[in-house]
Write a structure and sequence with these properties.
Oligomer: single chain
Low-confidence stretches: 1-22, 25-31
Shape: globular
Largest sheet: none
Number of strands: 0
CATH class of one domain: Mainly Alpha
CATH architecture of one domain: Alpha Horseshoe
Structural class: mainly alpha
Radius of gyration: 23 Å
Distance between the termini: 26 Å
């Protein structure tokens, strides 16, 4: 069991780690004609899902359509998308499979099922479905090719074996092919850049991500990834400027907070209107000057920032760090009221607080809500939820969430590799545990858990020999 100290090292103030890549889950148009009643229900569902971003309400119309037309592959597919948006991946996989039982060559569900398996780190299964969809598109669909490339890339990273070099080569070839088909495919350039970044080909990576930015001037994620590349090259001033540009174009509040944290951690200023309180509080938090941060945020809440959910969340975080848990919970609850959706960070921070108090059931609920509000893409919450599940004895699901945390964060959260190694060791998977300890030490040689990792690794290697 990890000591509580290790949790505090990865607690973030109103942040959400950026996904390092993008998968493409398009909502496809109807491929066949249905009765006017069914078509109307499908159209209503698509309106709620696509235009109003309300998958829960949309699902009701798809379910009603299936009562009338039980073999409606489109309804099964869209219902699967609803579950995916709600973070219910097992349910989404089940619906996509139902669509394929009706029509085994239904390309939308082949792609979406591949993406669902990808999100659960089942890369070989994802590759299988992407490849079938790509063949049906005669290997000329750039989005499917890019998805397939990402699955091959991450199988090479997270399931290293005899296919590793082949997967890397094929992934690179597919990214290039997708770009050849559509040279203005900004996401493919961006994702290819991240393959090159992981291979430490920094100059090529920067060239590709700049192509993505040239195509899409307001591409917040590409600017963020450019910052990651520049940071890896130790060009901190340039990285700060790239993060500032990402912040300028980012529309998701939690991503904005992540980017602000990045800027401040590198010693930069935010250069944005109405950010003085946030910037000052972050600076105090980074210095662990909790009392001054509490005073600053309390004054802000008493004044013009009383309806600012992010300020309330950060206030809760500062209170929690001072072990003022009841007050912190009230602050988090206020933040949730002010921003009931699209704010996973507050649920994550609340989950961490409850975990530190060993309130596992309540912590699990909060962390699952964080993941749901992040559409499944919250590496920090997956890691914390895995710790909760491990303590509850559910080792299988704990491993699934560690895998998701690693897939979504790359090397940005080394502690996940350490946590996963411990679980693998507990399960008797010694060779895999050794690999994970080595990855952790390579990423964080002076980290909080480095000494423990070296001792565990030394013991495992000596016992193996």
């Amino acid at each position: 069991m990890l000591k509580q100290k290790k949790f505090s090292l990865i607690v973030c103030i109103a942040i959400l780690i950026h996904l390092l890549f993008q998968l493409f889950l398009p909502v496809f148009v109807l491929a066949k004609q249905y009765s006017p009643e069914v078509s109307a229900l499908l159209a209503k569902g698509d309106e709620y899902l696509v235009n109003q971003d309300d998958p829960k309400e949309a699902s009701k119309f798809y379910q009603e359509a299936l009562v009338i037309e039980p073999k409606c592959s489109h309804a099964f597919n869209q219902l699967g998308l609803c579950y995916s948006h709600l973070g219910k991946l097992p349910e989404s996989i089940n619906e996509f499979k139902k669509a394929l039982q009706v029509d085994p060559d239904f390309i939308p569900s082949l792609v979406n099922l591949g993406s669902a398996f990808y999100k659960t780190n089942k890369y070989t299964e994802a590759i299988e479905y992407y490849k079938k969809a790509s063949r049906l598109r005669k290997d000329r669909d750039p989005e499917i090719l890019a998805n397939l490339a990402s699955a091959l890339r991450d199988r090479a990273i997270f399931e290293p074996g005899v296919l590793q070099s082949f997967d890397y080569d094929e992934a690179e070839s597919l990214y290039k092919k997708a770009i050849t088909i559509n040279n203005n495919f900004a996401q493919a350039h961006n994702n290819y850049a991240l393959l090159l970044l992981r291979q430490k080909c920094y100059e090529q990576a920067e060239e590709e991500v700049r192509k993505a930015i040239a195509i899409k001037k307001d591409y917040a994620m590409a600017y963020y990834n450019l910052g990651l590349i520049q940071e890896a090259k130790n060009y901190y001033t340039s990285a700060i400027e790239s993060y500032r540009k990402s912040l300028k174009y980012e529309t998701i509040s939690a991503y904005k907070e992540d980017t602000r944290r990045k800027i401040i951690s590198l010693g930069g200023d935010l250069n944005e209107a109405n950010s003085d309180i946030i910037a000052k509080s972050y600076a105090l938090i980074l210095k662990k000057n909790w009392q001054q941060a509490e005073s600053l945020l309390a004054k802000a809440i008493a004044g013009n920032e009383r309806n600012n959910a992010i300020v309330w969340n950060n206030y809760g975080f500062v209170l929690a760090e001072q072990k003022k848990y009841d007050q912190a919970i009230k602050a988090y609850d206020k933040a949730k009221i002010l921003m009931p959706s699209h704010f996973p960070a507050v649920h994550y921070n609340l989950g961490q607080l409850l975990l530190s108090q060993n309130n596992l059931a309540a912590s699990e609920k909060a962390l699952r809500e964080a993941i749901s509000q992040a559409n499944g893409g919250h590496a920090l919450a997956h890691n914390a939820l895995a710790i909760v599940l491990k303590q509850q004895g559910d080792l299988k699901e704990a491993m699934e969430h560690y895998n998701l945390a690693i897939s979504q964060s790359g090397n940005a959260l080394p502690v996940v590799h350490f946590n996963r190694a411990i679980l693998l060791q507990k399960q008797g998977a010694i060779r895999e545990a050794i690999i994970e300890y080595k990855i952790y030490l390579d990423s964080s040689p002076n980290g909080y858990n480095a000494r423990a990792a070296r001792e565990r690794l030394k013991k495992l290697v000596s016992n193996k020999n």
